[in-house]
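hey
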């Protein structure tokens, strides 16, 4: 598996983990940064790096480094990996399920949002929640199945809708691949890979109780609900994740050693 290592000195506000530069930022600062992007209309891509992202998106590192990509920490597994490699902590946990509604609420006066992905009817119900609960202007939806087969028509629909924020819910690494492949054909400014967000907003999947979230055990709650789908992610893939973190850290240390 090849990687494209980015020198940490090029991104002083980031910590390298598994070959990816993860920003050391807060939800407030990130929301402000992405709010300004809507004014400048310069394209930015936002990805949430949990352990699954680190493992599944290795081959996309070079493409991500070639555009304005923001990658932020998501989950206790990434926190553990960062502590093992850097002996540092992130200011706070940034998961998309909590951050995205907060961000969209903060920019609702200038945001036009298009929802793409998930099973049929899920995006429409998620759009209803964003409109009714958060006051977000949702200008279009498209599921990730039959409606998504004609990419050219989908891109035309997104552009015609006037969306300046596009949320893509296809899971890792499909959502990242789609955004990296198609963003240059779109007029939107902000592209975000959102994972299972639409399912949560639509009420199709429950969030963990607040106490479980507080103790950073939401991953275990989801594993109990979907053991068949998630067992590998939280067993074998965790071992792969830690191996990648250690290997890329060793590679970086080797490269900066003086001759």
């Amino acid at each position: 598996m090849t990687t494209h290592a980015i020198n940490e000195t090029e991104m002083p506000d980031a910590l390298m983990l598994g070959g990816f530069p993860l920003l050391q930022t807060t939800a407030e600062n990130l929301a402000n940064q992405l709010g300004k992007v809507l004014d400048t209309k310069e394209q930015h891509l936002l990805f949430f790096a949990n352990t699954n992202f680190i493992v599944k998106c290795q081959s996309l590192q070079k493409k991500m480094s070639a555009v304005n990509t923001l990658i932020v920490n998501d989950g206790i597994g990434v926190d553990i990996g960062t502590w093992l490699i850097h002996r540092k902590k992130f200011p706070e946990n940034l998961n998309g399920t909590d951050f995205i509604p907060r961000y969209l609420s903060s920019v609702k006066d200038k945001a036009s949002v298009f929802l793409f992905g998930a099973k049929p009817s899920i995006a429409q119900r998620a759009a209803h929640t964003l409109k009714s609960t958060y006051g977000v202007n949702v200008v279009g939806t498209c599921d990730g199945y039959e409606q998504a087969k004609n990419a050219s028509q989908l891109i035309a629909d997104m552009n015609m809708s006037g969306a300046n924020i596009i949320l893509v819910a296809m899971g890792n690494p499909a959502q990242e691949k789609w955004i990296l492949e198609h963003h240059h054909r779109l007029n939107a400014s902000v592209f975000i890979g959102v994972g299972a967000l639409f399912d949560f907003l639509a009420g199709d999947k429950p969030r963990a109780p607040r106490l479980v979230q507080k103790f950073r055990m939401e991953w275990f709650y989801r594993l109990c609900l979907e053991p068949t789908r998630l067992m590998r992610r939280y067993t074998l893939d965790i071992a792969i994740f830690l191996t990648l973190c250690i290997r890329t850290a060793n590679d970086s240390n080797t490269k900066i050693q003086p001759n």
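The longest helix spans residues 236-255. The CA atoms of residues 104 and 136 lie 6 Å apart.
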